[in-house]
Amino acid sequence: MDRFHTGRWTVRWISSFSRFVSPALLAAMLTVAIGSAALFVKPYVGMADNGDFYRILYGNGLYFNAPDYDGQYFGYFVRQYGIMQYFNDNEAALLSSQSLFIRIAVWLNKLLYSPHVFDIRAQGALYLALYTSAVYLLVESVTWKMPRKPGYFVALIAVFMFGDTGYTAYFHSFYGEAVVLIMTMLLAASGLLLCRGRYNDYAMLALFAVSALLLTAAKQQNAPVGVIAGVMGLPLLLIRRKAFRVTAGASLALLLLTGIAVYALIPQEFVNINQYHAMTRGPLLTSGNPEAALAAFGIDEQYAILAGSIYYELYTTVDVQSPILDQSFYGRYGFLPILGYYLAHPAQAVDMLQLAARHAFTIRPEAMGSFELAAGKPFGEHARFFTGYSELKQALWPKTIGFVAIWALAAIGFYAPSFMAAVKSKNMRAAMKLPLVVMIILIGLSSMAVSIIGAGDADLSKHEFLFTVTFDLILFAGLADVIRSRTRARERKGGGEG
Amino acid sequence: MRRRPLNQAVPKLKPSMTRLLILVISFCTAASVTLQPHVIQAEEQPPRRVLLLFDSLAIGTAREGNVEAMLRLLAVKGLQAKLQRVDEYREGQLAEYRGLVFMANNPKPDGSNARHLYAEDLLRYGLPYLHAGYDLPSAFAERLRLRTALSEAEQAQVTIGPLEGAPLGEAERMPYISDSQGTPYGSVAWPSSGKQAPFAVLEQGIAYAPVFVAGAASELAMAYMLKDWLGDSRTGSAHLLLKEIYPFTDLALLQATADALYDAGLPFIYSVRPVFANTDFPAMRRYLEVLKYAQSRNGTIFAEAPVVSGAAGIQTSPIKEKMAGFLNLLAESSIVPLGVGADAGLYLRNEGQFAEEGMAFFRSSALYPDSDAFYLEQAELNTTFPESMLCVRWDELEPYWKDRSSATLPVDVAMYADFFTDAAGMESALRRWKSDWIVFADFKKGRHLTRTEAYSLESSQGTLAINGSPIGLNDAVRAVSADYAYREEERKSLERLFTVQNYVYVTVICFSLIVFGVFLLIGVRLYRRKFMK
Amino acid sequence: MTIADVLMVIAVFCIWTLLLVNIVLIIAGYLYYMDCEATPEPVLSGEAPFVSIMVPAHNEGMVIIPTVESLLALDYPRDRYEIIVINDNSSDQSAALLASLQSRHSERNLIVINTDAVTGGKGKSNALNIGFERSRGELIAIYDADNTPERKALRYLVAELMRDEGLGVVIGKFRTRNRDASLLTRFINIETLSFQWMAQAGRWKLFKLCTIPGTNFVMRRSIVTKLGGWDVKALAEDTEISFRIYQMGYRIKFQPKSVTWEQEPQTVKVWFKQRTRWAKGNIYVIVKNIPMIFRRRTKVVRFDIIYLLSIYFLLLTSLIMSDILLVLHAMGLVHTTIAGFSSLLWTLAVVLFIVGTFITLTTEKGELSLSNLWQIALMYVTYCQLWMAVAAYGMFAYFKDLLYKREAKWYKTERY
């Protein structure tokens, strides 16, 4: 008797659960739970500074106040920083969209915690909240109108992939990757939701445009994103007429302009190290004859000595900031000349892309530690909590450019038939899906290309973060769509026989 | 040491005494032979250790950096030094040292205990004492019968040795020696008020210099006094040193400069940056050819220390192997690096045991004053370079170098400049060097030794030798062919078969395409005729 | 030299050789086309021989009526031909529809044989045998149930056959009726045209050889009798018969002026099933006839068998192998050091493929268009890969059947 009651109660609980908790909601709840466990439960997880923090920190009114900050580079992440109380002469006008989020976090911190000390958990909370909403929208876009069971399965996949600590650890750091992650996901989700007509079109269009803008403005390397989104988003114009078309057109134009502006205007802190590597770990590395490569740029052939050299070596022949390099080396090449060189030497371009592919599947770079000094872990220790996906990803996928090509072609081939069918039946909304997928793929590939051109093969895993995110997004969308079509096929078969 | 010839006049002695005398003499001779160190190190004694104390680093004042300057001077003199704040002085510490230098940079000392401590120990151990700066402790001031006064706030000028009227410090009130017993060194003058005072005085091991700043003139003046304070009998000469030479410096300019300096009769030193990778590239060989050429043009080669990358993070790197590799490479190309050039900071801070690991091959060093202040507060300098040079910027001293060619220098001085960026710069510098009164000496003329595990590189009286065999200096620059297999080409399987096969296929396909083209033309015509009627 | 290298060498060699063979065939085929354009239409002289047209049908209710109606409308003396529809074990409305059609044309030679699972249901070959028993013509013509032949189709075929005693069979051309239904049908259209103008026309020009396409052909009765009917076990009964006809010393000629229009599969799933069936059947036939290569008497057929053999086995395995190796190489799992990969060569080969195929299309009205050109290019990457999948699956299915000794079943092509 008791078992019968409990059984019925369980069934009722399950049915009300599935009625009220959509897969998207489930995914969101789990993401919040797992993310919070990683970020807000001791030992806190974050990401150590590799030297890049000070620029964005000082530009936004924060400063290092940890007693031994220098000793914690690479090994430990620092949780607390000082908030500048007086005039900050380093204050740069919004360096990038990341500054926006930092300032909001600082404001929250001042409100709730302390006006003098900034605890990075405020930023972590802000990012986690945004990220959860992004996950919610993403899962909703693929599971809307899907039966609950496969829907929950998809939600679990989403949590496994995107709840990974390799991703969420960035929220406790001042790397721009946190913004990149959230905005790319929102971009994909809003695009997919537009395709399915789930929410109000204008709202989704606004989300699409804003996330693309913030993504583009996050760092100078993301300039191509604006251009790609602006161009590949053109089919959006066909979804609806009149007012929507005008708004969409304006947004896309704005994105295009932002992309160009970001390239031209964001002060490229002349990062000499990247400039150095762009040549020594780029054309000079892959060329069979470095002197010929140098001649192509009009640089003295003696610089062949620097071929393959990494500036992170302790003892080097020349200081990367030295005037002799400024004069006769750096001034002779830039982003466009190197791009031109790779286009003219496709074999070397392929070699470089192979190198890029080798690091493209890392979510969190090797070198940075995850814990605070106070947590008592060894220097540079990585967090292991819920890192199944990041570890799997790194171990599983073949890290070759051929595989990247296969992935891109497979994704396009997968969505092509539905695209053709949609075009035939004049369903422009559904036809938007393929351009959206292509857009995301191109964004990922552009990140790869920009990384190689901008800094050769040095520091690739950090520079290619955008690729690794887009790879996961496409993989997830593809998996979800496979599950959806199989469920539909099964339903149809079942319906036919019945 | 020369053996006393036995046939010198000896007083007539009894036979047994003669035998005893012979025995004693032979024993002494034998002993002196075995105890005699290697001929090239004839003047060497075990390095002396000196304690350097300071009360303030004088940051922001004219004396800023004088602690580091003093450390450099001590290094040039081949001394081991320990740098320490005077507050941290422990009683009895001086027992391990042969002398004390105190940089009194604080015009208002707080009268702490430490000063008494060291003064007591000094007197107890009877060690030589050098005091540079304010307030010589009374015990020593009495010895020197010292009376000091404060000058007006105007620019002082120092004259010593070949220098005349070189600016000393800033235009501010500074102490000067109005009266004292003891040997005076140099003279400091305040032209507007006409006052004159010695730069420093020395009496029985106690030396006092009221004003010592970091700067070429001040350092050279201090060197004069240090020489006597240490009882050093060696003198030195001036050398011309060019640094900032990289493998990608304009090689033609390097060659032209060597030629020009040779034609002007000016010996010089090239301090060249090391290369640790890609050393078999043609570019490297061209570099080495030019260096060899410079060597044959009365040039001396110094190996410069590598750049320490600030971006390296926590890393260790085997600097010993790397430098040894570079030196061996030079040796294999018949280039004899006689010394090491390095920023003083590298040596003084000794991060990662740089001095012991990377510089221990050399006996001669040229330590360049660092452009970036680094406020060293303590140091233990145990690696010494017995035949080093004091480095001063050439254009800091040259304007004040008057015609005193007879004056000898207390220490080898390297007057350095960065290598030129273009021919015009070289020519204008050359004009000045030819016309000024500084006589540059050839570093090769002295005895120098650089040693790695594989090679022993030395110079003596103008000849260079590698592992004992002298090298000829008449090589012209050889042309280096640019053919170099940068990469081992992967052995391609069946290459010929495939190339021929591909060729055949391409021909066949092209032929077929032509045939198809013809068909296409016919076909279109046929089509039109048939279907478009 | 690793194993991967060796495999690549073999694969590359096979692919290129077959490509060359196909070039030769295209040239030959096109020359034959020019010949045909130059010669006038074949004319029936004397009395028209009596022709029995057989139409095997299984659940073809949707298409059988238009087929029979176009057969009834043929330009051939009405009393000199009969139409025999073998409605084999159909569970749809075919019987009723045919019956009503019969009643409407009661004066014509229209025979409908309805069989059930007992009397029939053993496949197309068996249906043909049943129809043959009822037939009385000295010539047998066969049309598929979804074909709508042109008015003069039969006339040309018969005229051509009667002109030459050495001909055992004359085959006509088939075109795609639902060409514009989907991208797949566009591809099939291109494929069928290029196949006929290359393989059929080319082989006739060079070796006086063709294979029976299963529809729109005319055959001498004596041959059927001599052969003892159709092989019930064979899934690809047309290829089987062709070989046996060669063995008898007759030739099979291609007469492109005789045209029939047929319905091709419109979805990939249906197409896949149909092609797998053909592939399996062809493999069966080839395997059965391999010994013929070694018999001197059948010299003329040797080429055909070798050709088919190479297409199905060698080319297929080579293409599959090289594709797999390419993918593995792209994923970094396998390493080949073959020097020969010249991008220029492969680009030229692709161009060759496109141009060659396009040439075969210029023979037909409405096919000389730019859209065809890019469709051929698209075909190269999509359709051809699918074909490889079909052939591979067919091979796999064949071996599976061999292993489990399954019986040949007649799978029907879905109609729309």
Automatic annotation (TrEMBL), chain A:
<keyword id="KW-0472">Membrane</keyword>
<feature type="transmembrane region" description="Helical">
    <location>
        <begin position="151"/>
        <end position="172"/>
    </location>
</feature>
<feature type="transmembrane region" description="Helical">
    <location>
        <begin position="246"/>
        <end position="266"/>
    </location>
</feature>
<keyword id="KW-1133">Transmembrane helix</keyword>
<keyword id="KW-0812">Transmembrane</keyword>
<feature type="transmembrane region" description="Helical">
    <location>
        <begin position="401"/>
        <end position="422"/>
    </location>
</feature>
<feature type="transmembrane region" description="Helical">
    <location>
        <begin position="178"/>
        <end position="195"/>
    </location>
</feature>
<feature type="transmembrane region" description="Helical">
    <location>
        <begin position="465"/>
        <end position="483"/>
    </location>
</feature>
<protein>
    <recommendedName>
        <fullName>Transmembrane protein</fullName>
    </recommendedName>
</protein>
<feature type="transmembrane region" description="Helical">
    <location>
        <begin position="434"/>
        <end position="453"/>
    </location>
</feature>
<feature type="transmembrane region" description="Helical">
    <location>
        <begin position="20"/>
        <end position="41"/>
    </location>
</feature>
<feature type="transmembrane region" description="Helical">
    <location>
        <begin position="202"/>
        <end position="217"/>
    </location>
</feature>
<feature type="transmembrane region" description="Helical">
    <location>
        <begin position="120"/>
        <end position="139"/>
    </location>
</feature>
<feature type="transmembrane region" description="Helical">
    <location>
        <begin position="223"/>
        <end position="239"/>
    </location>
</feature>
UniProtKB/TrEMBL annotation, chain B:
<keyword id="KW-1133">Transmembrane helix</keyword>
<keyword id="KW-0472">Membrane</keyword>
<feature type="transmembrane region" description="Helical">
    <location>
        <begin position="503"/>
        <end position="527"/>
    </location>
</feature>
<protein>
    <recommendedName>
        <fullName>DUF2334 domain-containing protein</fullName>
    </recommendedName>
</protein>
<keyword id="KW-0812">Transmembrane</keyword>
From TrEMBL, chain C:
<dbReference type="InterPro" id="IPR029044">
    <property type="entry name" value="Nucleotide-diphossugar_trans"/>
</dbReference>
<keyword id="KW-0812">Transmembrane</keyword>
<protein>
    <submittedName>
        <fullName>Glycosyltransferase</fullName>
        <ecNumber>2.4.-.-</ecNumber>
    </submittedName>
</protein>
<feature type="transmembrane region" description="Helical">
    <location>
        <begin position="305"/>
        <end position="332"/>
    </location>
</feature>
<feature type="transmembrane region" description="Helical">
    <location>
        <begin position="373"/>
        <end position="399"/>
    </location>
</feature>
<dbReference type="GO" id="GO:0016757">
    <property type="term" value="F:glycosyltransferase activity"/>
</dbReference>
<comment type="similarity">
    <text>Belongs to the glycosyltransferase 2 family.</text>
</comment>
<keyword id="KW-0808">Transferase</keyword>
<feature type="transmembrane region" description="Helical">
    <location>
        <begin position="338"/>
        <end position="361"/>
    </location>
</feature>
<keyword id="KW-1133">Transmembrane helix</keyword>
<keyword id="KW-0472">Membrane</keyword>
<feature type="transmembrane region" description="Helical">
    <location>
        <begin position="6"/>
        <end position="33"/>
    </location>
</feature>
<dbReference type="Pfam" id="PF13641">
    <property type="entry name" value="Glyco_tranf_2_3"/>
</dbReference>
<keyword id="KW-0328">Glycosyltransferase</keyword>
